[in-house]
Amino acid sequence: MGKAFIEIVIPILAVGGKMLPVHCIVELLDTPPGKDGGDAKKREEVEKRKEGYAIVPSTLQLRDLVRVALSKLDYPPERAKNATGVIQVRNWKALPFASITDNQQSSVGQLFGDLLSHITLKISVLSSDASSANCQNQTPEDQIRSSRVGGNANGSFLSLGNLGNSFFLRRGLDLPFGMMARRMKGGEGKGVGRTAHPVQELRIKLLQVLEKRGPTLLVSHGCPFSQVTVAQILQGKYNKPVSIEKIQAFYQWYNIYNGLTDNTLLPPDRVDSSALPRISSKHWRRPRTLFNPRTELPRLLRWYRQNPRPTRAEMEVYLAELNASDFRRNGTPLQYSSIMIWFKNARVKYRHLLRSTAIAQMREDMVYAKNSKDLVIDESMKDSSDEGESDMVVEEKEMEEQEEEGEEEQEEEQEEEEKTELLEASSSKSPVRSSAKSPSRSPGRSPARMLHLKVEPITEGEDSVGNENQVASVATSVAKPTILPSLLHMHARPHLQPVSIVSNGLIVPSRLHNGSHQAETALHVPDLRKIASGFGISLTPELAAAAHAMPIPGFTHHHFLQALDSVHHKESPSIRLDYHNSALSVPKPTPSPLTTPSASQRRTPTPQSYKHQSESPKPEKSPQSNSSQTSTSPATRVPRKRFTIDPTFEVPKLQSWFAIDPRPDRQTIERYVQELNSSEWRRHQPKYNNRVVYVWFKNARAKYSKMQVSSSDRDPDMERRHHELMRMHQEAQMS
DNA sequence: GCAGCTCTTATAGAAAGCAT
DNA sequence: ATGCTTTCTATAAGAGCTGC
């Protein structure tokens, strides 16, 4: 088996007794560098580099290659004593001989054959003085390497020195290479005795691949051992017998994974040769996956909503489905790990979202409790459950505990999630869990979900510019979904509170609303578009405007989900805009798999609710003036505040204008500015000015001219990206 | 002085990596 | 699996220059 392994890893080519030219680079380090190591000029002189071809017999054994090559290049034999060699294929990372083959007796012809024209033999020759002196400037890993290469002219050291895990390195270095191969070949005994060394071999192999990918990725990249087993092998703690089948499976995987091209995750015809030089380096990094925001992200989101924790099999199905699209067939196919990572990041993203909001909510609640004796839990909620504590009560308790015992937050959350799952499981039996939350809910329907709107206090004199964080915080008060998994399924926190509209059009929890002067206790405005854009979803202009039109009485999570569905399914949104009184008119919720909001959730706004909206906005500084004026001290550099252009609503608008005329005149720009600022959402956002629009057009021109240049360069990859961008651009225009 | 250009820098957000 | 960090990409904005 060991032999078979070698034959698979290194293509054995029938090269007869020919002479082969080996491209060599010899570096001489004759004298030690100065102690300070800073005399670059001197060092330049001592590092003599020689390049040439050594004509060697194809039958020359690898272990003799360095010695023979030096001899052919007219170096005295004693040089070979402290010479080490590595093989570099093209400009990839150089590999020591031991990483190429276990069998140092393999011939050069067998090993390299037709690849020879792509190969460089790099030889480092140290004088004995230099080698000892060099150690002073070497990294510990280099020292380990050097300590093992002294006097070894065949260069067969284990270059695992640049592994991140030097701990493993030291262990691995002591292991006999090829032992397993010999044993397996010789058919030595079975059982434990037979597997002890194979495990060590596995460890070395794992260490080799760890050089290319992080340990946690091995398993997800198909390594047949579990993560725990891998960890145990690496740490030398695995002493169980390993079946032959398992070892075979591992080597099958390893041979592919550790192949020269290391593009195992891509089909051969999709290998990007330009990326090859980076492989096999510990700095290798997976190319960033760009999901198509129009075709792929909505799908992923939909799947996430169905199940935030799909099994591997499910993800494989998703992968196949996504890769079947034209977008992927014409481009780089997705990898399994990309899907996996997306789900992982999505879970993290929404957990953070919920947590940050919950904490902000909790703090503000506490502030309010301090300032008011009026903190009462909504009675309608208190009696909402005939099954014990309402979700809200449970949640509130939990929130308090979190405040007191921050370190226990994770356990609490875990418990909550488990509770959630239990509740969800049981909810089918008892659909009505909190009647007061959704009194109008149809029997069997899922409990109410309500978007809990938070509004940042807008105080007089506060510069609204830079208050983009107003939209950063999103709270979703979600009763546990029963039928349709929630957008925030896994992280739903049933912090259910009815909202009230107070002056300035802000929304506050009704329990905080005393009728008039609670605006200052109002919380953050959540931007539904933020949720969508967080997933890269482009809402239709109507829907985006609807989302902007927050605060919206009665606009619930249900509506948002419904709206998202409509986006995904290309239906017309079920939300229509009615700017009468600057309010969004949400159609009376129709019976749906979800629910209708409770009466308390759908309070009608007070007359002053829209006063703020109807008022002319405060004079606001332009983003530029803001960024340039906020600096009170010249020494203190104020971070540039990036003006945010809404990607779902405003960018398509700009793009469509750009398509009409990429160089609008001043009047046109002013018109665009007015139009952009007239949107409902912009009322509470930093306003456009001519400069912003002008800069956008400027950058757009630069972008598209750059794309044209790239396209003319006939770089296939760039061309493809250009086409993708153009297609997306066209889609944006059409939408 | 203004507009436009190219190049550069800074920022936000997301994908990937890694330790636990 | 999770939480946190790092790295990367896209792009808004700035700097410096040129031409009119």
Please provide a written account of the structure.
- The chain has 735 residues and is of the alpha+beta class.
- Helix content is 43%, strand content 7%.
- The chain has helices spanning 2-9, 40-46, 62-72, 97-100, 108-112, 128-134, 140-149, 166-173, 179-186, 192-210, 215-220, 227-234, 244-257, 297-306, 312-323, 326-329, 336-371, 379-382, 391-404, 409-427, 528-534, 541-548, 557-568, 611-614, 623-629, 650-660, 666-677, 690-712, 716-734, and strands at residues 19-29, 47-57, 83-89, 95-96, 119-126, 449-452, 475-478, 499-501, 507-509.
- The strands form three sheets. Strands 2-1-5-3-4 form a five-stranded mixed β-sheet. Strands 6-7 form a two-stranded antiparallel ribbon.
- Strand 8 and strand 9 form a beta hairpin.
- Helix 9 (179-186) runs antiparallel to helix 10 (192-210), helix 10 runs parallel beside helix 13 and helix 28 crosses helix 29 (716-734).
- The protein starts with a helix and ends with a helix.
- 35% of the residues are buried.
- The chain binds a DNA duplex (20 and 20 nucleotides) through residues 164, 213-217, 285-286, 288-291, 309, 337-338, 341-342, 344-345, 347-349, 351-352, 410, 533-534, 536, 623-624, 627, 639-645, 663, 691-692, 694-696, 698-699, 701-703.
